[in-house]
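hiii so my PI (J.) wants the whole complex modelled not just the main chain, which honestly fair. so below is everything: two entries, each one labled with what it is. i double checked the lines twice but i was tired so who knows lol
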Amino acid sequence: MTDRDKLLLYVDGNLSAEHAREIEARIAEDAEFRAEYDLLRHVQRRLSQRPLGPSPGLWDGIQAQIQEESIWNSLVWAGKRLVPLAAAAAVIFMVLIDNGSTEANTVSDYFDSQTEMVLSEVQPDSLIIYPE
Amino acid sequence: MADFDERDLIRQCQKGDVQAFRHLVERYEDRIYGLACSILGDSEMAQDAAQEAFIRVYRALGKFEGRSSFYTYLYRITTNVCLTFAQREQRRPDRVSIEGMQEASDMALDRFLGTDEPQNDIERIGLREEIQKVLDHLSPDHRAVVILKDIEDLSQEEIADVLDVSVGTVKSRLSRARARLRDLLMPLYREWQGEEI
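here's the output for the full assembly
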């Protein structure tokens, strides 16, 4: 590593004490080297003077985007909850329809079986046949 | 409300208080916009990047545990957004080349070396532009390190945290950026010194 490279580290305090002393000695005795050091320090100083420009006002844009995202998130939230609810409602509806038809079958089966039972217990000769 | 403790504001934001977030934005927007301007060198793009950075912070604030300081966290997100914007800009085919701006920027570099501390608004604006012309000669990665070190006055450890790189990488980038600026400015500096003498 050359002294010029070390100088780049020196201005940021990234050189060991031993190397820093060497660089300081060269700055003191070498005018060209000192000019380079002065320039690097000048750049650091100048950059630190950078005036802060006022922001053009960011809140309105930020707020608009937050609100937009909030509406979208609400829709997503509602969607996530409505879909299972709708699915559950559909299942319940299907079960009810299915149960209704099962019940209807059961009722008609019940009457059929009762009729058959009654008819089977009746003796044929006990039947009164009314003339037409 | 303006004197509210930052941690209280963050806690309120985490509970969904948008007005608390507004106070955080107002507290930091000048610095964040300034940082974005320095990295991007374009006020319009800087406004978009700063806004995008705050939105990302708002979204992620629920996960912020306060292990690093809030401004380091904010700087990290802003710098990342700006570097992404800068990469996108570099890929644009209609981008004006730095070489094309060389002549105009030489005058700015000259003033960068010569002027004293600005005394009024016009001089302040002038200095801001001159500094920007100098920074424009660095790659976005090197520019970010120099800005965070010299303008924002962060330590090398904080810069490493912001950029999510090692301290060694920060030192190396700083050194290369300074070498670039030295090579760029040295001929003008010699002329300027000659005039001074």
